């Protein structure tokens, strides 16, 4: 398994969770989720410990779930509160509960050790609450591909010219150098395309009549949240790289949630500094994003299909793969760290280190 478990993953938008039981899968773990009477979202292991029927096939009784097979009932903490036909409850009669946090109308679930679940680690941006920015949630893109391929695609500006030639890219950027920074916690790849025609997206939403300077900054937060900062400004404005708010600027956010080894869900949304409060503009942007992301989906699913076939030789890597290569290594290191237990410094040890 290549999953980082000690992390917060997006289960869905707040609007996705209500009273009905909702079955889902994250990191290969089946969950049943629902909104309790106090408004909080609950996430439980979707498997009755008796005969292993998914609890999502049972029914809610208040804030508890009654198994649809023999009626064992579990509360929101996973405790068994009723076993029909007997007064005692076996110690093993429980289901695992997963920590859940809700912020900015996004529901996050912690898939690892619950004692390590720190809400301060949940991804956030000041633009979520700034009056100068408009936040709009898009959809959930279901991709039949491994999440590592999906995530590394989101730290790869070079593919835009070829995969999205009519929406987010054009041939003008094919040979423009990509800069990569891997020194901090966030992997970043970026480039500017100077004095070029606006791409399809900004032809529609930027109102540009002449050439523009445009940028792509791809920020990948481990394990799998991506922020794509992209925009355009008239070339005559001579915009400095750190003054991008002067242009039409958009943050496309991708919350990449591994379902299992063969499926991924990308919950995507955007933040923008123009057309504030204009829901018609939001709908038009969604339509263009749907076109672009369908292009990504087609490529990623074809890659995944080929990865599952026998390989006569190893794939090659080229210069543009610097960001994805570092990303893969960091994921491997995190997975390896979670697979062992560090007991700390030994006392009275007979083994002496000399390095």
Automatic annotation (TrEMBL):
Against CDD domains, the record matches this protein to: RHO_alpha_C_DMO-like (cd08878)
Q: Does the keyword Heme apply?
A: no
Q: Which UniProt keywords apply?
A: 2Fe-2S, Dioxygenase, Iron, Iron-sulfur, Metal-binding, Oxidoreductase
Q: The Rieske domain covers which part of the protein?
A: 8-109
Gene3D superfamilies in UniProt: Naphthalene 1,2-dioxygenase Alpha Subunit, Chain A, domain 1, Rieske [2Fe-2S] iron-sulphur domain
The record's section on PROSITE patterns has: RIESKE (PS51296)
Give GO MF terms, alphabetically: dioxygenase activity
Record carries keyword Metal-binding: yes
Question: By its UniProt entry, which Pfam families does this protein fall under?
Answer: Rieske, VanA_C
- Top-level taxonomic group: Bacteria
Task: Give TM segment ranges.
Answer: none
Which PANTHER family does the UniProt entry name for this protein? Answer: 3-KETOSTEROID-9-ALPHA-MONOOXYGENASE, OXYGENASE COMPONENT, IRON-SULFUR DOMAIN CONTAINING PROTEIN
What name has this protein been given in UniProt? Aromatic ring-hydroxylating dioxygenase subunit alpha
Q: What is the organism field in this record?
A: Roseobacter sinensis
């Amino acid at each position: 398994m290549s999953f980082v478990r000690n992390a917060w993953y997006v289960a869905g938008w707040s609007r996705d969770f209500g009273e009905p039981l909702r079955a889902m899968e994250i990191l290969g773990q089946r969950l049943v989720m629902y909104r309790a009477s106090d408004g909080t979202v609950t996430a439980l292991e979707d498997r009755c410990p008796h005969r292993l029927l998914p609890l999502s096939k049972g029914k809610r009784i208040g804030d508890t779930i009654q198994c649809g097979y023999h009626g064992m009932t579990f509360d929101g903490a996973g405790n068994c509160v009723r076993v029909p036909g007997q007064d005692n409850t076996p110690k093993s009669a429980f289901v695992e509960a997963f920590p859940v946090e809700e912020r900015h109308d996004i529901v996050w679930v912690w898939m690892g050790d619950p004692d390590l679940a720190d809400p301060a680690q949940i991804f956030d941006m000041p633009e979520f609450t700034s009056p100068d920015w408009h936040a709009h949630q898009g959809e959930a893109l279901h991709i039949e591909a491994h999440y590592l391929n999906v995530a590394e695609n989101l730290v790869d500006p070079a593919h835009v010219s070829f995969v999205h030639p009519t929406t987010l890219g054009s041939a003008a950027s094919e040979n423009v150098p990509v800069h990569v920074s891997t020194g901090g916690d966030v992997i970043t790849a970026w480039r500017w395309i100077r004095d070029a025609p606006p791409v399809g997206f900004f032809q529609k939403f930027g109102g540009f009549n002449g050439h523009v300077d445009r940028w792509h900054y791809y920020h990948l937060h481990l394990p799998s949240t991506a922020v794509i900062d992209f925009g355009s400004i008239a070339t005559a404005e001579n915009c400095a790289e750190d003054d991008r708010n002067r242009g039409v600027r958009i943050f496309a956010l991708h919350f990449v949630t591994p379902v299992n080894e063969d499926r991924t869900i990308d919950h995507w949304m955007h933040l923008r500094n123009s057309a504030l409060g204009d829901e018609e503009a939001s709908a038009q942007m969604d339509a263009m994003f749907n076109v672009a992301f369908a292009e990504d989906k087609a490529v990623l699913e074809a890659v995944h299909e080929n990865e599952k076939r026998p390989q006569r030789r190893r794939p090659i890597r080229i210069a543009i793969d610097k960001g994805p290569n570092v990303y893969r290594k960091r994921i491997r290191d995190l997975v390896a760290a979670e697979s062992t237990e560090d007991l700390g410094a030994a006392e009275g040890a007979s083994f002496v280190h000399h390095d």
